[in-house]
Amino acid sequence: MNKFRAMRRRQVLSAALSLVTLLGVGSVAGAPQAKPPAGRPIVKLDRLSLPDGLAQRAQLETRLRATLKREARRANWGAGRENHIEYRFSLQALEISQHGSVLRVRCAALGELPGGEKAKSDVTFGGAPSERTALVHRVVDVVARGVVSRLAELERTRRGLH
């Protein structure tokens, strides 16, 4: 019985692969799919905003700039080496509170592209109070990664890539 299921599964997968190849991956019926250009665009952080009154503001800003640079380099923006993309990043909230033996870190951020598209991210993590700095860095990194990847998706959609 298992032999027949495996054979049937292979037939279905083969038929599905043939259909995908025939139609083209990600193409809409009747609409040609744009090809992404070669190379990577130059992606720059136009403005970085942090809320006032943050503890260790300089250290957090340095960490955030490095994370944003790394994530912008890794993201697929759907543009080639001749393109320049600028974006803005605003850390709107960074709240640290302790509830018993658990440290909670909440971070909210907003990213913007020049065309007016915006991406928001809001994350809350919990951890040990003894690992405060590592937890804050981890939460900020997750938020930055989420905002940059969403901005890259918005840019790809604007350029007609899906």
Condensed summary:
The protein has 162 residues and is of the alpha+beta class. The chain contains three helices and four strands. A hairpin with a 2-residue loop joins strand 2 and strand 3.
From the structure above, extract its key features:
single chain, 162 residues, alpha+beta, four-stranded mixed β-sheet, 3 helices, 4 strands
Protein topology:
Blueprint: H1 2-23, E1 42-49, H2 57-74, E2 84-99, E3 102-112, E4 118-127, H3 132-158
Parallel strand pairs: 1-2
Antiparallel strand pairs: 2-3, 3-4
Helix pairs in contact: 2-3
Would you write up a description of this structure?
It is a single chain. The protein has 162 residues and is α+β, with helices and mostly antiparallel strands. The protein has 3 helices and 4 strands. The chain has a 4-stranded mixed beta sheet. The protein is flat, with a radius of gyration of 22 Å. The two termini are 40 Å apart.
Instruction: Report the uncertain regions.
Output: 19-23, 25-29
Number of H- or I-type helical stretches = 3
DSSP summary, beta strand count:
4
Order of helices and strands: HEHEEEH
Mind summarizing the main beta sheet?
A: 4 strands, mixed
| Strands in their spatial order, largest beta sheet | 1-2-3-4
Shape: flat
Write down the overall mean pLDDT: 85
Straight-line N-to-C gap: 40 Å
Structural class: alpha+beta
Helix content: 40-55%
Gyration radius over CA: 22 Å
Strand content: 25-35%
